[in-house]
Amino acid sequence: MRYYIVIPAHNEEDFLKDTLTSILRQSLQPAKVVLVNDNSTDGTEDIIDQFIGLSPIFTKLNTASSAEHMPGSKVINAFKKGLAQLDDHYDFLVKLDADLILPDNYFEKIAYIFKGHPNVGIAGGFVYEQNQQGNWVLNHPMNKNHVRGAFKAYSKGCFKAIGGLRSAMGWDTVDELLAAYNDYEVYTDDYLKVKHLRPTGKAYNAKAKLLQGKAMYTMRYGWAITLIASLKMALKQKKPIALMDNMKGYLEAKKEKKEFLVSKEEGVFIRKLRWANIKKKLL
């Protein structure tokens, strides 16, 4: 299967070389890899240039955006710029972070999933991060049927059906909800263990703490589902303040009349799906 990768990179000199090396080691090579150098002020571009010299699969796009590392909008805006450099001659498309080490057979397995399961629209493995003892341990704060935003692979049909990715916090949840709305499934493979070199959220701005709640508003969760989801998140993270931040973010978004990421019809489907999942876990 033919696939393309887009990698947004902002000041990734500490990790990018490992990520690109792991791409070169793939048993199934990508047809194209677009490296979006997004306003980097370190040695990111030098590393990109080195790898362009190593393989013709790599291309570079320099772009300037906000210097703030805000989750959601910055990375997806960069992704979209990279996507605009590509044609439609692919079977699946990958949005990849610049701080990962992939197993050598990662994309061969992803291709096998898409080829064998035409109803699968989004596929991926699981994140492993190093603990204080130096061991690589699973870090997957959401349900096992969720693919982390760091390495999302989309079939062409699914990507087109969901209308691409949303430039907002929550993009890597709303894509899966819209995939379900369009009758596509999410597939995760326990054997695909991806090493994440920088723990999630380390570079995020303090302003980001309210964005999760705002995202729940823009996904049309409604007050009750937002409260339940936020409570679950706070308990899982062992951070009671997360509940307060989420609800404050939700109320601020409602007051500001933030633009929704989904239509009314999609919102109805999303709420029904969320309630069904909540009831299933209670029974």
From TrEMBL:
SUPFAM superfamilies associated with the record: Nucleotide-diphospho-sugar transferases
Protein name: Glycosyltransferase family 2 protein
InterPro entries on file: Glyco_trans_2-like (IPR001173), Glycosyltransf_2 (IPR050834), Nucleotide-diphossugar_trans (IPR029044)
Leader sequence segment: none
Domain of life: Bacteria
Pfam family, one: Glycos_transf_2
Domain Glycosyltransferase 2-like: 5-148
Coiled-coil regions listed: none
